[in-house]
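Board notes (copied after class):
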Amino acid sequence: MKKKYDVIISGAGPVGLMCAYLLKRQNIDCLIIDKLAKPQTYCKALGIQPRTLELYESLNIANNYIKQGLWFDEQRIYKNGVLQQKIKTELRSLPFGFMSIPQYLTEKHLNSEFNHLGGKVYRAFQLESFSTLSNGIRVDITDLKQNKTLQVDAKYLIACEGAHSVIRKQLGIEFSGDQLKETFMLADVKVNWDLPHNCSYKFFYEFDGERRYLIFIPYRGKNRFRVSTVIPEDSVEMKNPPGLEEFYAVTQKGLPEGVTFSDMRWSSIYKISHRIAERYSIKRVFLAGDAAHIHPPVGGQGMNTGMQDAYNLAWKIALVIQNKAPDKLLETYHEERYPVGLNVVNHTKSRIDKNVKETPEEALLYDSQTLINYRNSTLSFNSLSKNKRKIQAGDRTPDVLNLSRKGLNFPIRLFDILRGYKFKLIVYLDFDDKNILEELNKQLITIQDITMDAYVISHNEISIDAYEHIEFIFDKNKHFKNKFDAEHSMQLFIRPDNYIGLITEHIDFNAIKNYLKFSIQHQENEG
């Protein structure tokens, strides 16, 4: 461990590892520590939402998850042992479906990607406190194996320590919310039954005049499920963690006849809170994941929301450290992510209270996290009427199928060219205008210090062989044109997290330059 880093990350769960990996990809020197001597091997968070899989694909790391994940086919709902409803768990408009994979595998894959870049997680190191320096942060870290305290300096500090974050508490940031009165229990078990494995199950039943429920979430492995329920108030006090017999005794009244559990790998009794940090950042310190927001585990939102926190924050910190953006850019992390976290906390609590009216498809769309947008962000610029188009600045960039590139004898998707954690400029033209292409190529030369790819998309053949900074995408069947409601021309400036920063309905290079000047400290090359 060195004495100085660009960024220190406290907590090596999924969110902390994602932060470390994203920063390392951008050549940012980061230290990530965790108080645990070795990674946990519990399934814990299971659900991977379509938007998180899009994130993985953009980073070229999706395959490991697809290989070991389990795709949900449907959700089945039972009442008093009778099947009431089957809900297909698919949204054909999205590139990915809904997946489950144990949290320890998520952490394993992220840790492996981080290691491949030369990163290392320092385990059995605990953050005790921190102080502010004139140009950074000084952190006191305890080496739990050697029982000694170290001081390490950094430009920025990210808290990914979970709900009991030491950093959040030292900052004095209020963690607003409350705790649910119910006590919950869950177990990772083998369920001995013949029901399909690619389904999640909800069993509602009544016992002693009280309505109760069981929730079964599957993952890869013969009949492996994470089973959860509320402990009835009249239950005898149980040890924590509960054993297999105790867990079965509480749940058996709601199980179909003849169903039993075996091979328990993990169990827990716990309380659930719904809370949100009133600030996601103060100066050089940032909160992400459960350190910033916790809520009932309805719809598999928690870990996925934390992943999006990391995806939003890492590119901004990297640009500032690389002197390509002003410090003000970092203020947009709270501006953009706090409303998202607040919405998730409130929505999941409302679902628990049964105060949400939504169709199954609306629920799936919400859970997919593809509806999240930053339309009200100071980083989102529209030069067109907000009511004119479905897709606006601040929206997630949607995928487009059946595009093509010269020399490739197979179709490509828009997401294929959005890979890589960097800016992309997309210019749509339905006519061949050499003046526009020459000006575009010239403008791109002046902003080479920014990692950015530039593409011209058109349903007409356009020759760009003379332009070294532009690539051409052929929209023969007008899928892009129709998806984006493009007319004769359009330009999109897409952020590294693949949200649209700027959208104009005509080619306007000054709009691009003004956008860059706002969010990036850009100086044009001389000569």
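Comment from the instructor: The chain has three domains: 4-67+102-175+275-368, 178-273, 381-519. The chain has 13 helices and 25 strands.
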